[in-house]
From TrEMBL:
GO terms for molecular function: 2 iron, 2 sulfur cluster binding; catalytic activity. InterPro entries: Fe_iron_reduct, FhuF_C, IucA/IucC-like_C. This is Ferric iron reductase protein FhuF. It comes from the Bacteria. Coiled coil: none annotated.
């Protein structure tokens, strides 16, 4: 390539096996020419806090800043984590994704696509520390600290959402001996990679062997609630919400009926 030529952007779905391509459509290596929406430096998202919260407030009809921000970050993580897992687990390659080097495309205040540097995909490696470090340390750590501080939300709430998503994916869609080894590394270490910090993902999900009736056993529970129940009209707790253990039998039965109505089972 001529030194004056601009590197070509590629959708990460082009690099993923066909079965995983649909999970990678919203991640790009390089900034697409036909940018749709507003391009924002990911490291400066907190400066756009009011726009982000307004988008969720319109969708939900109200709610506290903390609950709205938690749900907005959930959407962001749904865009970020699947392709990062495909790279780490399926391709066995890390994605270099320092927050300062990433650009987020917003449409009406909601995350639409994330753009990494063109050469973000690293070399194949068996070491989980290398495959997950940039995602966790270079991207999620500053992102969560920044966004949580913007609305005085505990970072532990957002780390709980991260851990819930990662643990579920590694134990279901990516289930294998290698995936279990990755999960053991991510959730079983007290130290957070090589940072000297306590691991915010340590045992972030647990399985409750003797849950109250009528809940099934073992009951998979995340560490903290994502605060969705604080939004107007949101009555159904997610199936891994720790608040389920605080309900009496009648309230639990009501929850199961509400979930059956909302999700068909």
């Amino acid at each position: 390539m001529n030194s004056t030529e601009k590197p070509l952007s590629r959708c990460f779905a082009e690099l993923a096996p066909p079965a995983y391509a649909p999970y990678c459509r919203h991640l790009h290596l390089g900034l697409p020419e036909d940018v749709s929406g507003i391009a924002v430096r990911a490291s400066r998202l907190a400066e756009h806090r009011d726009v982000l919260l307004s988008a969720l407030r319109r969708h939900h009809g109200g709610g506290s800043d903390q609950a709205l921000l938690s749900q907005w970050c959930g959407r962001y993580l749904n865009l970020l984590l699947p392709p990062a897992l495909v790279a780490a687990r399926v391709l066995r390659r890390p994605l270099r994704m320092a927050l300062a080097d990433c650009t987020l495309l917003l449409r009406d205040g909601l995350p639409q696509a994330l753009c990494l540097p063109c050469e973000a995909l690293g070399d194949e490696t068996d070491a989980p520390a290398e495959r997950y470090r940039s995602l966790c340390v270079d991207h999620l750590l500053p992102f969560i600290d920044m966004m949580a501080a913007s609305v005085s939300l505990s970072p532990r709430v957002l780390w709980s959402t991260v851990g819930n998503s990662l643990e579920y994916a590694l134990s279901t869609g990516f289930a294998s001996e290698e995936a279990r080894a990755d999960a053991d590394y991510l959730f079983g270490q007290r130290s957070f990679f090589d940072t000297g910090l306590a691991n915010p993902l340590y045992r972030v999900v647990h399985y409750h062997a003797f849950p109250p009736a009528p809940l099934s056993s073992p009951l998979r529970l995340r560490r903290l609630c994502c605060l969705r129940d604080r939004l107007p009209g949101e009555r159904v707790l997610c199936s891994s919400c720790p608040k389920l253990l605080q309900l009496d039998e009648g309230a639990l039965v009501e929850q199961l009926l509400l979930r059956k109505t909302a999700f068909g089972g």
